[in-house]
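User: Teach me something about this protein's shape.
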Amino acid sequence: MLFPGMLSARVPERWRPNRMSRTLARLRARPGAVVDLTESNPTRVGIDYPPGILNALADESGLVYDPQPRGLAAAREAVARHLDRQGVRVDPSRVALAAGTSEAYSRLFTLLCDPGDEVLVPRPGYPLLDHLTRLDGLAPRPYSLVYHGAWEIDGDDLRRQVTPRTRALVVVNPNNPTGSFLSPADRALVRDVCRRHGLALIADEVFLRYGWGAEAGGPTPAPPAGRSVVGRMDGVLTFGLGGLSKDVGLPQLKLAWIVVDGPRRGVARALRALDFVSDAYLSVASPVQLAARRLLEDGDAVARSIAARVRRNRAALGRRVAEQPVHTLLGAGGGWYAVVQVPATRSEETLVLELLEHDRIVVHPGYLYDFPHEAFVVLSLLPEPRRFEPGAARVLARAAGAAA
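Assistant: First, the predicted structure itself:
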């Protein structure tokens, strides 16, 4: 039996779904489809996967357990080759594997921070970062991204957030949900702040390969080469994150990587310490490590399909927004999400609940990602076009209704 005070302060004291979650659960219990324009799972949106893509998991070499803290050499070499095909040069000895990027974050927080230390995280940003830092006994300190036709880091705010307890700076490149890559000016700013204050840089680049060439979904995706911060942060100890979940649309296989970059002595020391941390868990299953090369190679076709889907849906959304100038589709360079600024004639929560109750459509309100003011809605670009396009049209019509 549990008594008050027996649970950690790092987990919520009360578990109560918010109004949006309660409404959605009620609707899903009734007949009739709900159009989910927040879907982030590529395995549920009609993406074609090559036949036999999972066959490599049956390699009987997996019957032998060969624990390696950094991961099996063959898997790390496969990751390095995969990144090299995208123009990002990586030494396999500087790759460490984890069971998903959330675990990779936790490993790095353990490596870099003591309980009570602080980590700088972007706002707007994905709320999971707050949970991950707090679960490791750390304090997230948000720094602002500002929008003036394009997103950029607010340098003054970033510098203000650094305290004597700050140990690391997180950048998400491209950001979720804004879709913004770090500009050359942002990279220079981050490099300067990290050097000046002795901070490690954690670069979450899980969406790196999903860039588009032109706004509203250009026909040619922007290549990852030149977009990554790995290899571009002279003098800064840098940890680049990626994984099967986004790179090849296989979130269920739970394989992610950490690329360690920076000054040679700092990298060597970090890798030794990271080996110690990882050796305590050894969480990555042998079959997925042995299958990594095939999964990454065969998964390229999946990534191309996802990228085409994302560009198509963003282009359709751009056309719809152009028809209703009360809305603004915020500029972005990549990722799987779109942000639309809508008339602030009622709260985001009211709008989202109206869409649920009257249209059976799910979207995310901007406040979920800590946008600085209202009103914004965030839409996933993954759903099938036959559902996305009419659903997005209804969202825009509903949002414009009170402004008409």
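Now, about its shape. Residues 50 and 298 are 7 Å apart (CA to CA). The chain is about 35% helix and 15% strand. If you'd like, I can walk through any region in more detail.
User: That's plenty for now, thanks!
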